[in-house]
Amino acid sequence: MATLKELAEYTGFSIATISRVLNNDPTMSVSESTRATILEAAGKLHYKSSARQRRVRVMHSKQLRFAIAEMLSPAEQLADPYYLYLKNYAVQRCQDLGFSVVHLQEHMGAYEQDTAGRIDGVLAIGIFSEDQIKALSRLSDNLLFLDSSPDELRFDSVVLNFQLGVEQAIDYLLAHGHREIGFLGPCRKLDQKKRPALEVRREIFIRYLEEKGLFQAEYLFDAPMTAADARALLSERLTQGAPMPTAILAANEEAAIGAAGALRGQGMSIPDDLSIISFNDTPLSALTDPPLTSVSTHVEAMSATAVELLARRAANSIKTLPLKIVVPPTLNARESVKEYKV
Questions:
Q1: 170-193 as b/e, with b when 16 or more CB fall inside 10 Å?
Q2: C-alpha dist (Å) from residue 3 to 9, 252, 290
Q3: What is the rounded end-to-end Cα distance, in angstroms, of the chain?
Q4: pLDDT, tens digit, 9 for 90 and up, residues 149-194
């Protein structure tokens, strides 16, 4: 895992600047290109570190050419880097295996390549509407979805086991003495085909705490999964002196970073005044202040698995049943959770 010092040496920015960018300091304004440089550098240094510990396996086959379709725009990825890292790790894995990559742009319901040529498969990252899925399927029969599974009977997919991740986070907090636990994230989000639906992690959180007789509805903090929205919501609640839990599960790192900012604004801190666990565990989790205990979605492994499955399909002319690979998350304990003692 990269350190702030290594990031500073790699990017040329100061440690202070990098730290403030990663922690979404509202008093600091930086350009999108600066934030993108820092986020992508964190991912590259993490990848180089992990690559030293494993031998890259090269597939001996014809050079394959894959297209990547992304749910989020580059600007949106900077607000939620999870998808940025999924894409970058997928591209890196393709390069490791000797495959070429082209990027798709949607225009009036059709997807276009940035360069002409054949396509051996399409990697669709995120969630897509039914019309978008139809458009993508016209480009190639070899279509795989990463981080969604819109049609298990037709398409391969690589997704995360959210149930296991939420349960691990709650069990960890319970083992550390917490009984008043909140959830920070949206009430509703988009489902596997971009239709409005209840947010999955939030629903699992509610059910699991209800089973244990510990659910408290007043500790559901409904906010979009951005640092600014999470900070604004919790800042208002803290200013009003409303009851707070002893710990929070945040839907992603940006929400967790926003929560930390809200507490700092009130002269409080994580974990002394509030323990927090985030979802995703991208390279940002170890670099924020404090380093976040996080449910690791194993973004690098998810992307590598997707690329390798796509390559196997491209090399095999016989169509078999679609596969849905469900990746088990694990909890990565750091410094944002402390023992709670009554």
A1: bebbbebebbbbbbbbbeebbebb
A2: 10, 21, 13
A3: 35
A4: 999 999 999 999 999 999 999 999 999 999 999 999 999 998 989 9
